[in-house]
Structures are given as structure tokens and as C-alpha cells.
């Protein structure tokens, strides 16, 4: 099998070597595609790699019939329609660490350029003017830098600002007093930060909550002569409000690497002498581009070949050590889900997945998603995967609950799945036996020992002498060979179940002879 990867933005050639070197992966670099051309071509690719230029819209994703993964060589994923990706079962991965240093250094370069009017002075000198009066700047030493968003880049900027002997005050919903103390900075609310800062730099993602968080009301609360830096995302600062605040003299200067609409070659802010700008260059260093391309290439190879990603954006990320521990249960969890879709009657309303034994020590979200995938796939088709399984269940009003329980029933690990419909509750439990692999060990209240694999027939019957023989003969008449058989019963002579593993796929009508037997109450074909 060969996977086709399309790279639609310029990426470091050294950085994509892991992709080029991977067996079974074909790399196609086409960095000049229009949106229409991309939509037309995307159908034949398994992976798409982008920076921030390519807009991966719902329209493009909906036409990407084979697409499994979108890799973003960088941090921000606002150029990718994440909801559409999740709905279509496409995992989105990014490279969150590779450009932190470059973006922080660029922010500091902008801060210093802003304070000393370096770009304006340079332009003036380029125009043959020796003007030493217009470009008088201010020192950073002793000034306060307000950092909004103390994540990877915000923290790095704060540390560098301290090196300039600035005071730093930060705000981030996750910044605790303890952490602020350790970093040697002050902390407060957004309002505290914007009120006291001489320079304000934003380092949040662009989200519903952060869009225009620096707006007219915020500018009104700032110190007169404040200077603003945005090397994060256009749109965090309301550009119209910034324009007015500069015109009114409230804001003395602004340094912008990013804009609400990019490319921004004809922006009114660029006409203001107080504004200095770069065309989204925060991550544009040789090192950052190589780092992010390497990281994202490795993740794409890993996902296409092993089904595991290190930096998923539309799935909770699970540390590699944990993934290694739970990976052996992936197959079992999906099979348990699939088993139940065959035996439960009616519309599924609730899925309860319980873990006991050693499984309780791990993050089991991926196993729950895999179980849900197994439950939905039979009716919704192969496009159901662990990326969209929870979304598709939620869309159908199915409640999914995850439990951890201490009842191991003597097994070192036990994964139990219960499915509720209006008319019934059905349960199946499985375990991983050391050296022997997965087993179904319980179906409803019956204990069994079944390898969850292949072609199966599930029979409900009355426990009485001769039933097993009659079942064998009925199947023999249809040339169906029994490979394994398990029976379970509630009481002697009571309700019982039989799980048969057979050698070939069985058509439902081949089982009519069985259904005609008086002792048989139900017969279901199961394909695992
Ligand atoms: N200019 C560039 O080329 C460039 C390069 C790299 C990253 N970026 C951008 O820089 C930004 C930061 O990147 P990062 O790697 O530090 O991300 P990060 O996820 O490490 O940090 C973002 C921080 O913002 C915080 N945050 C979220 N909502 C907030 C709010 N309402 N108020 C205050 N803080 C809030 C989060 O808690 C988080 O700590 C992103 O927008 C990213 O896309 C730009
Ligand atoms: O691809 C780029 O150069 C921009 C990257 C940057 O904005 C990011 O969010 O990582």
C-alpha cells in the first residue's frame, strides 16, 4: 500500500526527509495551487501538509475522500476547519514546539525595533535623510511589559524581557501565583496587565474568547503612550480600534507580524508611521522551519503507518508511554463494540465502557473512542474512525460514559461494554490474556471464553440434551464447519447461549434451519 502525501505550502526540504525516506509514502510538493485546484486534486491524497498559507476549508475537506491526516507545520491551526476535519474523521496534527524560540526572538526584535524606531529610521536613511530628531526612542529598562498568553512563546518572551531589565506582568487562565513567582514575574487579570503595562504583547491563540480581546474598551484602560505588539494572530487585536487609538495618540506605536486578513499588503495600519510590521515572519527561520517540518513529517509517517499521532489537535493527546501500554487493547475494544452492534436490538441510546484491573491506571480515552468506533462502524461505514467516533455518537444523541471499576472478576484487566437501547441492555466483557491475546469472557450474565475474531454465530437456546448435536447437524447441511464452540447457561435446563466460530462467512438465510428448531430462540450472525 502506498500513501500519497501532498505538501501545499513551502516546507523545509531537510525537514521533510522523514517523509521522503519512509517506505510506502509518496510525496508530492505543489505549493502554487489555487483553492479550486486543491479541492480538485485532494481526493487522491492520504495526507496534506500545510503551513499557514493554505486554507483547509470544509469544502476542501469534504472532497478529500482518502484524506486521513492534515499536518500543520507550526502551531496555529486557524487556517484549518477543525470541525469539518473531525466530522470527516481526519486527524489534524501540528508541530507546537519547533518554532517557539524563533517566534519569541521575533517578538523581542519587534519590541526593540518599536522602542527605538529602527524600521522608520532605516527607511528614512534609505531615502538619503540623516534625521536624528524624529526617531528618538525610549529605553526598555525599567518599563513594564504586559504579556497576555503565557504559553510556550509568552513565557519565552517574558524571560527575554527580564534580560532587558524590564518588569513583566503576565496573564493566562493557567498562570498560577506559584508559577509566576518561579518565573520571577507579576501576574494579574487582563485588566491588571493592560492598565500598568508600557508595552503589551499578545501570545494567545485566536479563539472565540480572544478575538478582539484588545478592543476600544481595552485601549481606553491602557496607559497613554502604550505600545502594542502582536506576533501571535491577526484578530486578537481589533485593527479598527488600534487604528483609532493610534490616531488619537493613546497608542504610541504598534508592531505587527500578523493581520486579520493575510496577505495584508494594502492595510490602512501600514500607512501610519507609528506602525512597524513584518509579513508573518515569526516562524521564518531556517531552524524553526526545519524543526516544524521534521516534527510534523514524523507524525504523519507515524499516523499513516501505526495509527498513532504525537501532537493531535482534534483528539486529546496521550503520552507515548501511555499509548504503548493501552495499544494492545485497541483491537479488543473495537471488537467488543462490533460484537454488541450485532446482538443489541433497537436504537442505541447509551454506551457505558468500564475498565478494571491494570487498565484503571491508564488514560483510557483512546480505548473508549475505539469501542464507540466498533459500535458505529457497522451501520455508518468505514469512514468512522477514532477521530470522529465521539462526534458521530454525540450527533446521534448517544450518551457515552467511561467508568473505572474495582471488579476484575479475577482477571488482571477487564474491559466491559454495556449498550442500552429502549428495549434492552446488553453487555459484553473482554480481557487480554498474557501470551494468548484477546478473549470475550462474558456476554450478558454468561461466562464464556471466545477469541473475538472471524465469522461467528450467536445462539440463544434452552439448555437441554441434544441441542448441540441438532445445531451441528443443521449447520452441516449448509456445509458450515464449526471451528470452535462455547456455551454458557444460567441454570441447568434454563436459558443458555452458544457462540460458534465457523470457517466461512455465513449468509443469514443459511441459518433458517437453526431458527426452526424448537429449543432455539434467537440466531445472529456476527462478523468480527
Ligand atoms: N507569528 C508567527 O509566525 C507565529 C509563530 C508561532 C506561533 N504563533 C502564534 O503564537 C500564539 C502562541 O503560540 P504558543 O506556541 O505560545 O501557544 P500556547 O498554546 O503554548 O500558548 C497559548 C496560551 O494562550 C493562553 N490563552 C488562551 N486564552 C487566553 C485568554 N483569553 N487570555 C490569555 N491567555 C489565553 C493559553 O492558556 C496558553 O497558555 C499562537 O496564536 C500561535 O499561532 C505565531
Ligand atoms: O507557517 C508559518 O510561517 C507561520 C507559523 C505560525 O504562525 C504558527 O502558528 O506556527
TrEMBL record:
Reaction(s) this enzyme catalyzes, per UniProt: (2R)-3-phosphoglycerate + NAD(+) = 3-phosphooxypyruvate + NADH + H(+); (R)-2-hydroxyglutarate + NAD(+) = 2-oxoglutarate + NADH + H(+)
Any one GO molecular function term: phosphoglycerate dehydrogenase activity
EC number: 1.1.1.95
EC top class named in words: oxidoreductase
Name of the protein described by the UniProt record: D-3-phosphoglycerate dehydrogenase
SUPFAM superfamilies in UniProt: ACT-like, Formate/glycerate dehydrogenase catalytic domain-like, NAD(P)-binding Rossmann-fold domains, Serine metabolism enzymes domain
UniProt function note: Catalyzes the reversible oxidation of 3-phospho-D-glycerate to 3-phosphonooxypyruvate, the first step of the phosphorylated L-serine biosynthesis pathway. Also catalyzes the reversible oxidation of 2-hydroxyglutarate to 2-oxoglutarate.
Gene3D superfamilies found in the cross-reference section: 3.30.70.260, D-3-phosphoglycerate dehydrogenase, domain 3, NAD(P)-binding Rossmann-like Domain
Listed InterPro entries: ACT-like_dom_sf (IPR045865), ACT_dom (IPR002912), ASB_dom_sf (IPR029009), D-isomer_2_OHA_DH_cat_dom (IPR006139), D-isomer_DH_CS (IPR029753), D-isomer_DH_CS1 (IPR029752), D-isomer_DH_NAD-bd (IPR006140), NAD(P)-bd_dom_sf (IPR036291)
Keywords per UniProt: Amino-acid biosynthesis, NAD, Oxidoreductase, Serine biosynthesis
Originating species: Saliterribacillus persicus
Domain ACT: 456-528
Similarity annotation: Belongs to the D-isomer specific 2-hydroxyacid dehydrogenase family.
Gene Ontology BP terms: L-serine biosynthetic process
Pathway(s) per entry: Amino-acid biosynthesis; L-serine biosynthesis; L-serine from 3-phospho-D-glycerate: step 1/3
Amino acid at each position: 500500500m502506498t500513501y500519497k502525501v501532498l505538501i501545499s505550502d513551502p516546507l523545509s526540504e531537510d525537514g521533510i526527509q522523514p517523509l521522503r525516506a519512509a517506505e510506502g509514502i509518496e510525496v508530492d510538493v505543489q505549493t502554487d495551487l489555487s483553492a479550486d485546484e486543491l479541492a480538485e486534486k485532494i481526493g487522491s491524497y492520504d495526507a496534506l501538509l500545510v503551513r499557514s498559507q493554505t486554507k483547509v476549508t470544509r469544502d476542501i475537506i469534504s472532497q478529500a475522500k482518502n484524506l486521513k491526516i492534515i499536518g500543520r507545520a507550526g502551531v496555529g491551526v486557524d487556517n484549518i476547519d477543525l470541525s469539518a476535519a473531525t466530522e470527516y474523521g481526519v486527524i489534524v496534527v501540528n508541530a507546537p514546539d519547533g518554532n517557539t524560540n524563533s517566534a519569541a526572538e521575533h517578538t523581542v526584535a519587534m519590541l526593540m525595533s518599536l522602542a527605538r524606531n529602527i524600521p522608520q529610521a532605516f527607511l528614512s536613511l534609505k531615502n538619503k535623510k540623516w534625521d536624528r530628531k524624529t526617531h528618538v526612542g525610549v529605553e526598555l529598562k525599567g518599563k513594564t511589559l504586559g504579556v497576555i498568553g503565557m504559553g510556550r512563546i509568552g513565557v519565552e518572551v517574558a524571560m527575554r524581557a527580564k534580560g532587558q531589565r524590564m518588569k513583566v506582568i503576565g496573564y493566562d487562565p493557567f498562570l498560577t501565583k506559584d508559577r509566576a513567582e518561579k518565573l520571577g514575574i507579576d501576574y494579574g487579570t487582563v485588566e491588571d496587565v493592560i492598565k500598568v503595562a508600557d508595552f503589551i504583547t499578545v501570545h494567545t491563540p485566536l479563539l472565540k474568547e480572544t478575538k478582539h480581546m484588545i478592543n476600544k474598551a481595552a485601549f481606553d484602560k491602557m496607559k497613554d503612550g502604550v505600545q502594542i505588539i502582536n506576533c501571535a494572530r491577526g484578530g486578537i487585536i481589533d485593527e479598527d480600534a488600534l487604528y483609532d487609538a493610534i490616531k488619537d495618540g493613546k497608542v504610541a506605536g504598534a508592531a505587527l507580524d500578523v493581520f486579520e486578513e493575510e496577505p495584508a499588503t494594502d492595510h490602512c495600519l501600514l500607512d501610519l508611521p507609528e506602525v512597524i510590521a513584518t509579513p508573518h515572519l515569526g516562524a521564518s527561520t531556517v531552524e524553526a522551519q526545519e524543526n516544524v517540518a521534521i516534527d510534523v513529517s514524523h507524525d504523519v509517517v507515524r499516523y499513516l503507518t501505526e495509527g498513532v499521532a504525537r501532537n493531535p489537535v482534534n483528539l486529546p493527546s496521550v503520552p507515548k508511554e501511555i499509548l504503548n501500554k493501552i495499544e494492545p487493547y485497541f483491537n479488543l475494544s473495537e471488537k467488543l463494540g462490533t460484537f454488541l452492534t450485532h446482538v443489541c436490538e433497537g436504537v442505541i441510546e447509551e454506551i457505558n465502557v468500564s475498565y478494571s484491573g491494570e487498565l484503571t491506571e491508564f488514560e483510557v480515552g483512546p480505548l473508549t473512542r475505539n469501542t464507540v468506533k466498533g459500535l458505529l462502524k457497522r451501520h455508518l461505514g468505514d469512514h468512522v474512525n477514532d477521530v470522529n467516533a465521539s462526534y458521530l455518537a454525540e450527533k446521534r444523541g448517544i450518551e457515552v460514559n467511561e467508568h473505572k471499576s474495582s471488579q476484575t472478576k479475577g482477571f488482571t484487566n477487564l474491559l466491559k461494554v454495556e449498550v442500552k437501547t429502549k428495549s434492552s441492555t446488553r453487555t459484553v466483557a473482554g480481557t487480554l490474556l498474557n501470551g494468548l491475546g484477546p478473549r470475550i469472557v462474558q456476554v450478558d450474565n454468561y461466562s464464556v471464553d471466545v477469541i473475538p475474531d472471524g465469522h461467528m454465530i450467536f445462539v440463544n437456546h434452552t439448555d437441554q440434551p441434544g441441542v448441540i448435536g441438532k445445531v451441528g447437524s443443521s449447520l452441516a447441511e449448509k456445509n458450515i464447519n464449526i471451528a470452535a464452540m462455547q456455551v454458557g447457561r444460567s441454570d441447568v435446563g434454563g436459558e443458555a447461549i452458544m457462540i460458534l466460530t465457523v470457517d466461512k462467512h455465513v449468509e443469514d438465510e443459511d441459518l433458517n434451519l437453526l431458527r426452526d428448531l424448537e429449543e432455539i430462540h434467537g440466531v445472529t450472525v456476527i462478523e468480527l
